[in-house]
From TrEMBL:
InterPro entries: AAA+_ATPase, ABC_transporter-like_ATP-bd, ABC_transporter-like_CS, P-loop_NTPase. CDD domains: ABC_ATPase (cd00267). Residues 2-186 form the ABC transporter domain. The keyword Translocase does not apply. It comes from Alcanivorax hongdengensis A-11-3. This is ABC transporter.
Length: 191
């Protein structure tokens, strides 16, 4: 599904990594190793060089917008542009809110009126709302309590099982089944 032939950034490089639908990756490595950089390069949000394919189609045969609609980066440091939380969704998110422990009434509020943990979960739903092929989730459970963490992990697992592909970074080992990758000395490899 996603094939990284080669990816070079000033600080990291990856070569010959293949990922299938239904696969989740747990990206490991020390703080500052470049885990977030890799996710942002995969989503084409940072300058990088090389070649990647999604469903056999080169990144260079697509517009940046086409690629970024399929490979979506979701960060804990999320940004919001519109007055109400609900305004950020293309599809009605109310039924999905409960899956991550959020009260649908929060959708009527301004993003700034949510707690950071609520905003983080809403940002995940916003990313899933775009129906990505690959979700690059950067510390999706950081700062969450155990109950919320379990619900977010279940939501991510459901995404992968429906044919999505997930790459996430975590300091804490998530409970869903994941293939470990590691970044060491700027190189990404199977752990
Ligand atoms: N846009 C950027 N351009 C160049 N260097 C960057 C950029 N963003 C971060 N860095 C640097 O790249 C290195 C890797 O940062 P990154 O955020 O990817 O680390 P990380 O492995 O995700 O760390 P952590 O686990 O602490 O979140 C750090 O030294 C950081 O200062």
């Amino acid at each position: 599904m996603l094939h990284i032939h080669s990816l070079q950034h000033a600080l990291i490089q990856a070569r010959d990594l293949h990922l299938d639908a239904g696969q989740g990756i747990h990206l490991q490595g020390p703080s500052g190793a470049g885990k977030s950089l890799l996710l942002r390069c995969l989503a084409d949000l940072l300058p990088w060089q090389g070649e990647m394919e999604l469903h056999g189609r080169s990144v260079w045969a697509q517009t940046p917008v086409q690629w970024r609609r399929q490979v979506v980066y979701c960060s804990t440091e999320n940004h919001w542009w519109l007055p109400r939380c609900a305004d950020h969704f293309l599809h009605d998110p109310r039924t999905d809110m409960d899956s991550v422990g959020l009260d649908p009434a929060l959708l009527e509020r301004a993003p700034a009126q949510l707690s950071s943990g609520q905003r983080q979960r809403l940002a995940l739903l916003r990313a899933l709302d775009r129906q990505p092929t690959v979700l690059c989730a950067d510390e999706p459970c950081a700062n969450l309590d155990d109950h919320s963490r379990a619900r977010v992990e279940a939501r991510l697992e459901a995404f992968v099982q429906r044919g999505g592909m997930l790459i996430l970074t975590h300091h804490q080992k998530p409970s869903l089944p994941l293939t470990p990758w590691r970044i060491e000395n700027g190189r990404v490899h199977h752990a």
